[in-house]
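Teaching assistant's notes for section 4

Start the section by putting this record on the projector. Ask students to predict, before seeing the second block, whether Starch-binding associating with outer membrane will look compact or extended. Collect guesses on the board.
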Amino acid sequence: MRNILKVAVLGALVIASSSCKKYLDVNENPNNPTSSTPNIVLPQAILLTANSTTAFDDFGGWVAGYKANAGGYGGFGTEWTYQYTTANYTGMWSGAFNAINQANFVLSNTSSDGPLKYYNAMARIMKDYNYQRLVDQYGDVPYSDAGQGIAKLSPKYDKYDAVYKAVYADLDSAIAILNSPAETNVTVNVTDGQDPLYGGSTAAGKTKWVQLANTIKLKMLVRARKATELASWVTTAKATLPTTSAGYLTDDAIVNPGFNANTASQFNPKWSTNAWDVNGTASGTGLSRMPTPWILSFYNGVKLTDLDRGKASYASFGANVTQTIGLTTITFVGPATNQLGYDVDPVKRSVSGSYWYSGLQIPAATRVTGTNANKNQNNVGILKSATMGQVLMLAAESYLLQAEASMPSVNLVPGATKSLFESGITASITYLYKNSANSYINPTPAATLKDTYVAANNTNYLANFDLATTDEQKLEAIITQKYIAVNFINSEEGYNEFRRTGYPRIVQGSTVATETFASLKAPNDLPARVLYPATEFQVNAENVPTDVTTKTKLFYAK
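Reveal the predicted structure now:
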């Protein structure tokens, strides 16, 4: 933690401008500080938050069954065995705290009632978003002592329940600020160039920021309601939740500061990690990862039939494909898949740009690759192009959170559970058929594609909600649809919800590829959590919890 705080002292002072280039070069000259201001640092806090989602998605992708090792690559021992060390998945911690430190700089230089109050509110929401994610992965984290620079280089760890309560209260404060009117000749509005998420403190922008804050709050209460230390607080806190769906996210929360396909440092980070670089060279990460038979079973008819989302998500979905591996030629229905931990040749191999780059275009065209793919604005799917925005939270997740929260047995918000459930499916389809400019470009409305999907699965309560007659079936349907929606986007949410609910349902200990997403190397050893990073034990050893193992359950886990 001390290292992160040192970065905060320096990083908060980085010279920048509100231009696209400068938000993207957030690490430029970190050791040569001079001065900075909230209008410069706020967009960096937003962008660092968006960039950190890649690390969370990477963890969730491995552990929740969305991806596995490809043939011809090694070095996956930890992913296969779940024998995590303090060196694994540290990017979640460092990425979130780097963003928090930027937000703290803004908060230290603004107030809730001063001329920069809207900067203050937005920085609060970014800080709170990151803390909610940290608590959901680690439990206890530094909070009350964190972000104080050299005054607190070894911050204490606060209990998860205290952090949750503080974050929730802070979100309420941010909402109150955004709902307060601007004062003529006093309040400085956040401009479009300073807010790469919602375009500034226009009326529409403030409404969307409030919706995001409320959706984070709802997620926290859904996750906390069965935790012993938080149950009574949830009962009281829910009074501040909106009572209509319009109060929550109705569109995807996507950060795009102007990602540029011509400059390597200005690529969307998810694209550059998994697809191609500026020269059109395929990423080794994308080539070395494969979808699993488990996740494909939710698209290809084994568990559910989902042709429209399948072909948008994966290259060669449903097509006959041939691969020659060594002296062996194999033919299969695409995309190629591999079960986590399977390493006996011939293991199928990925394709340039990864199988998560479907290359599906509207209107239809041949799958383009390399530099052409980097710039192509007609692609839809998960990986769209180098200029695509970075997702903070999907509208699909918002609707499915509301669906669960509206169930009488949960009773957090009013609402029609079935309608919210189907809105979640529609929103998932909508995101996948958006292009890099964040425009839905399928000539068939998403609601129509949703109806087609429900009809194709009309005997399965996981899609046809009318058939879910018990609370457990309803919850399973909702969580399964959320698991599908966050595939390779916010994959950690799929695993968070599995830990909380046990859905999607797996057969414990099975080694059958469509019965479980657990590794063949450790089918009974799914981890309960990741470990605190090694840097904490090096620089904050007096405070970091030492009794945590990968079997230590988080507060919301079953």
